[in-house]
Structure of Reverse transcriptase domain-containing protein:
Amino acid sequence: MKRFISLRKRISADDELRSSYAKAISELIHLGIARKVEQKELRLPAGRIWYLPHHGVRHPARPNKVRIVFDASSVCEGVSLNSCLRKGPDLLNDLIPLLIQFRRFAVPVIADVERMFHQVQVPLHDQSFLRFPWTEGDEAPQTFQMTRQVFGLRSGPASCQYLTLFLYVVLLNRE
C-alpha cells in the first residue's frame, strides 16, 4: 500500500500524468483486461490473494500515453509473486534457423499479436493473485484485478508462447 500512496502523490502533482494514468486504467477495465472486485470476493482464504504494485511508463515518442506496469517481483514479507511461479521453457524459435527458413518461400509472412499478454485469459481461480488498488481521486482505493496475463509475471512468456503454439496446432489440424 506504501507504493500506491507514493504513486498517488506522484500522479496528483502532474495533471497530464493523472489524466493519462486514469485513461489507461479505464481502458483496461473497458476492454475486460481488468475488473473491479465485488465486495463478496474481497474475503478469500489466506494465501489466495496477492496485490501487485503498479506504476506508469511513458513512451518518449508518445508522452501523453501511459502504459501501466505491474511489479510481480515486489517482495512482501519475504516473498514475491514471481518467486512462487515457474518460468517455464523458452518456446521461441532460434533466430538463425528462422532466418534460413524465412528464405525458402517467395513471399514470407510474419505477424505481431497486439497486446499479446492481454489476449491470454487467466483462469478465474488465479485472478485473485493479480489484484491492485486504484482510485481516481482522494477517495479510498478500490480493489481491481487483472483477468488477463500481466507483462512482468515470471510465467507469462511461456504461458503465452505455449498457447500460441497450441492454437497453431489446433488450427492447422482443422484444415
User: Anything to note?
Assistant: The beta strands are 34-36, 54-59, 62-70, 75-76, 79-80, 131-134, 142-146. The longest helix spans residues 156-174. Residues 1-86+120-155 form a domain with the HIV Type 1 Reverse Transcriptase; Chain A, domain 1 fold (CATH 3.10.10.10). The chain has a mean pLDDT of 86.
